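One example copied in:
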Amino acid sequence: MTDFQDSKKPDPFLEEGRLLFAGDCSFIKGAVKLDQLPDMAGVEIAFAGRSNVGKSSLVNGLTGRKTLAKVSNTPGRTQELNFFRIGSKLTLVDMPGYGFASAPEAKVRAWTKLVFEYLRGRPTLARVYVLIDGRHGLKTTDLPVLDMLDKAAVSYQIVLTKADKLKPGEHEERLAGVQDAIKKRPAAFPDVIFTSSEKGDGLPELKAAIARLIAERS
């Protein structure tokens, strides 16, 4: 466990999480319309975040596959709902980034509508992991997404990215600030996870959280 994670007893789901993401992993399909969504199966989780927050890097880091999700320096490159099958129990969805995107406004609105409709109408969706740049914490562009998730009663958990970019001692301050900001939000899961796709920090804890979620839904 990294020095910026809370000191706790060993999580029994750490090994289950490791095994979950060590198995088969494959791309199912990309969807730009609701009628293109794949059939629902098992537990489904989704990753949301501002453009260029590191969603694709995190998906690649979780699965240990460098090119499973495309990584780009161009914000807004992910323009569809990308579905991945992880083992036999989990479907992972990489959603289009919100906020700034290098695309026409009409297309950004279309992506946003697709995402919101997906979140409101997917019974197998167990949790949304909302990625926040750990260097900056929650920003005003994140709040409408959290508001929407609260209103739709979709469970979500904050995952702070780019932990390796912070100075020593800044992690606890950032964690405390985010936890305070979400404590009164009805659909927010209270635990916040700090991660670094580059260094691998926090990924075992995130895998364990996902494995625990699957066990709870089984």
In short: The longest strand covers residues 125-133.
